[in-house]
Amino acid sequence: ATIIGEEDDVDYTTEEAKSLITLDTSSDVLQHSCPESLAHINEEDLVIWVDPLDGTKEYTEGRKQDVTVLIGIAAHGEAVAGVIYQPWYEVQGKETGRTLWGVVGLGAFGFNRQPVPEGRKIITTTRSHMQQSVQDAIDSCKPDKLIQIGGSGSKCILVIEGLADAYLFASPGTKKWDTCAGEAIIKALGGKMTDVFGNPIHYGADVSYPNKTGVLAAMRDFDFYVSKIPANIMDR
């Protein structure tokens, strides 16, 4: 498999790097079987996209709840499995951390999805990069509410948990390692992630890293959001 990460200059062969590798397994995960659709994929067809610290700006500002670790697995260029780890997730005021994970064809685990009222349209987007194209795309969808939060992983979590209905970012600001894990989990739940025009995001080893035409993810009403995006939005 090919591994591509934001910290791509790390030498994984050093003793220090090897000491960070854990071989522990989770019985909760291993009780599940690999879906038939993925059971016969060759290792050389896999690309693993890693962001060891998504939400760097938030981390430096002490907004640790918005920081995640992202590991996405793509097969033949499509996101098929993902892990989102929240190191500073709190339960009753205590930092416990949690891991959300999913596999397309199997399902998604590690969280509780909230019931979503019919017709509700809550959009989540960037907290610190609200350029004109981002604002115009959001305005075109006329959301009931806007949630601005840092980190692609944390925005994906809002959609995954049913706290937001769409993740919309009409800007080339994210990279493949920002979206692969979240896309896989959203797809495992029956949702969808593409660029803002509805075109698939490709995760092959030879693709360019930036998501040049933005990101759009939703669990439902996906075609509604795509239909509202102005064709020239990325030129603004």
Which spans of ≥5 residues are poorly predicted at pLDDT below 50?
none
Percent helix among the residues?
Answer: 10-25%
Helix and strand succession?
EHHEHEEEEEEEHEHEHEEH
Strand-pairing-aware structural class = alpha+beta
Describe this structure in words.
With 236 residues, the chain is α+β, with helices and mostly antiparallel strands. It contains seven helices and 13 strands. A six-stranded mixed β-sheet has the order 1-2-3-4-7-8, covered by helices on one side. Strands 10-9-11-13-12 form a five-stranded mixed β-sheet, with helices on both faces. A two-stranded antiparallel ribbon has the order 5-6. The chain starts with a strand and ends in an 8-residue tail after the last helix.
What is the topology?
Blueprint: E1 2-5, H1 15-19, H2 27-30, E2 46-54, H3 56-60, E3 68-75, E4 78-86, E5 90-91, E6 94-95, E7 98-103, E8 107-109, E9 122-125, H4 132-141, E10 145-148, H5 152-160, E11 166-169, H6 176-188, E12 192-194, E13 215-218, H7 222-228
Parallel strand pairs: 1-2, 9-10, 9-11
Antiparallel strand pairs: 2-3, 3-4, 4-7, 5-6, 7-8, 11-13, 12-13
Which key terms come to mind for this protein?
six-stranded mixed β-sheet, 236 residues, single chain, 7 helices, alpha+beta
What is this structure, in a nutshell?
This protein is an alpha+beta fold. Helices cover 22% and strands 26% of the residues.
